[in-house]
Design brief:
Blueprint: H1 3-13, E1 14-17, E2 20-24, E3 40-41, H2 42-54, H3 59-71, E4 91-97, E5 100-106, H4 119-135, H5 138-141, H6 144-158, H7 188-204, H8 212-233, E6 234-235, H9 237-244, E7 280-281, E8 284-286, E9 289-291, E10 294-295, H10 296-305, H11 310-322, H12 324-327, E11 336-337, H13 342-349, H14 370-379, H15 383-396, E12 406-407, E13 413-414, H16 423-437, H17 442-446
Antiparallel strand pairs: 1-2, 3-4, 4-5, 6-7, 8-9, 10-11, 12-13
This protein binds alpha-D-glucopyranose (GLC).
Length: 465
């Protein structure tokens, strides 16, 4: 793979607004599958931004952070309802008319299935930290606009609603998997981003007496969330054995099977799936429900952010090693394993033909996930796995014209309805190669892992100017 061709694709994807670069389009495909791939998606911009930051092109990231901040809270609401100022759009586009240029946001109101982008504001906060680490631009971070924005995001995400656990309760398709896939409730990827966002906010929010209560609440939530995910989402042989022997119908606070999960719900494919060294965080938890599917991005982010404990992180990488063919295959990384099919596919996806088994969100292989995979592999001392994965992606992706995703059990086929020249397929690889080959760039990545102790008080000593 030539680095130049990936960089050319990134260059072509840059979107300008009033003469300034403000982001990158999801794809630079002359014939995109869907019109909105010409827009700047918040989540898609993340690997672009990390690459720009690593190369010292910080201006575009700052512009992006500023413009998205201004677009927040513009979602349509029912008459009489209060608009939440902390919601950020899934994507935005530049509209040119007789009055000049303006940005138009999409909060899911123009998107397929009208999904709410719960992940956007969390990725925005994550990028703010990456920007802070790289530039030390404290004037921007400490400006009233940015501090107010962080407070409003926190107010939305920490508002008490219908949660019965410290995890965040969300509708279906509210993150990278943005179509119906039975990922409603408490999906893992949202919980890891939530954790990253809370930890980032407590580092970047300015200390003041007025903030004390908000920060105390945040600390309590983050500790509870971490303990909850490490205990309840973690699945290894020992835990599986416990579930296998669970008793149902327990009532009262002493219950051990609190969610009333029945052993009969353990799927057949779990039999023999885990060896004594491996484990992972399950895809979702709810009443009477463990979603046993393995979602790669949530697990990898949990390793990167330190939400998974050291031992759990090793267990996750051991699982990748054990099931390399299934989870990495010919084109790393499989988004979810296994795929659902037949009646289950009908019920869980609403018979979505794009999400047929082993395609797209339902078990497709997504090259963009290489950056989080390599980040997690390096963090856990698995350089050989990182190298092998990068080699696999690099040997095909340019020849295939940078597809968005691949199909098939081992990811051997170009995705049936995949876009070509997908920006994050190129930037994922650029970031992965950069951290693999250039250890000085790992510094930023190492800082993605948050210190384990949430000592009382705000501000992280290492982050001050
Ligand atoms: C698809 C993906 C989503 C991505 C968007 C633009 O909808 O599921 O995660 O943000 O395409 O690339």
């Amino acid at each position: 793979m030539s680095i130049d061709s990936a960089r050319d694709l990134l260059e072509q994807s840059i979107i300008y607004y009033r003469g300034e670069p403000v982001g990158t389009s999801a794809a630079a495909d002359p014939n995109p599958v869907a019109a909105n791939y010409e827009e700047v998606f918040i989540r898609d911009f993340v690997p672009s931004a990390i690459y720009f930051l690593m190369r010292g092109q910080t201006g575009i990231v700052r512009n992006f952070l500023r413009e998205v901040m201004k677009l927040r809270g513009q979602q349509a609401v029912l008459q009489g309802h209060q608009r939440s100022a902390g919601l950020m759009p899934a994507s935005f586009r530049v509209i040119k008319d007789t009055d000049g240029e303006r940005l138009e946001a999409d909060f899911g109101d123009r998107a397929i299935g009208r999904v709410v982008p719960v992940d956007s504001a969390m990725w925005w906060v994550f990028l703010l930290r990456a920007y802070a680490i790289t530039t030390s631009d404290w004037d921007f971070i400490n400006s009233d606009d940015v501090q107010t924005c962080m407070r409003e995001v926190l107010d939305l995400y920490l508002t008490e609603r219908f949660e019965s656990s410290p995890t965040l309760l969300v509708p279906d398709g509210s993150f990278m998997v943005d179509r119906r896939m039975a990922v409603y409730g408490n999906p893992l990827e949202i919980q890891t981003l939530f954790y990253g966002m809370l930890m980032t906010s407590r580092e970047l929010l300015q200390c003041s007496e007025a903030e004390r209560e908000r920060l105390d609440n945040l600390d309590i939530r983050v500790r509870a969330l971490r303990a909850y995910v490490r205990n309840r989402y973690w699945l290894d042989r020992e835990r599986l054995n416990e579930i296998h022997r669970f008793k149902g119908e327990e009532i009262g606070i002493e219950a051990s099977n609190v969610l009333n999960v029945y052993p009969e719900s353990i799927p057949d494919w779990m039999d023999g799936w885990l060896d004594a060294r491996s484990g992972y965080l399950v895809g979702n938890q709810g009443p009477g429900r463990v979603d046993f599917r393995f979602f790669a991005q949530g697990n990898l982010l949990a390793v990167l952010f330190g939400l998974a404990s050291e031992g759990e992180s090793q267990g996750i990488m051991n699982l990748f090693e054990l099931h390399w063919d299934k989870l990495m295959g010919e084109m790393p990384v499989k988004i979810v394993y296994p795929a659902v099919s037949g009646k289950e596919w009908m019920y869980l996806t609403g018979s979505d033909p794009k999400n047929m088994q082993w395609s797209y969100h339902n078990g497709g292989n997504w090259p963009v996930l290489i950056w989080t995979f390599v980040g997690a592999a390096l963090r856990t001392g698995r350089e050989d796995m990182a190298e092998q994965a990068v080699r696999l992606v690099a040997q095909r992706i340019e020849i295939d014209n940078w597809p968005e995703y691949y199909d098939g059990r081992s990811g051997g086929l170009v995705g049936r309805r995949a876009n070509f020249f997908q920006t994050w397929s190129a930037t994922g690889l650029l970031v992965a190669k950069e951290i693999l080959e250039n250890p000085s760039n790992r510094v930023m990545f190492n800082l993605f892992a948050f210190a384990d102790a949430t000592a009382k008080g705000c501000g992280c000593p290492g982050m001050e100017p």
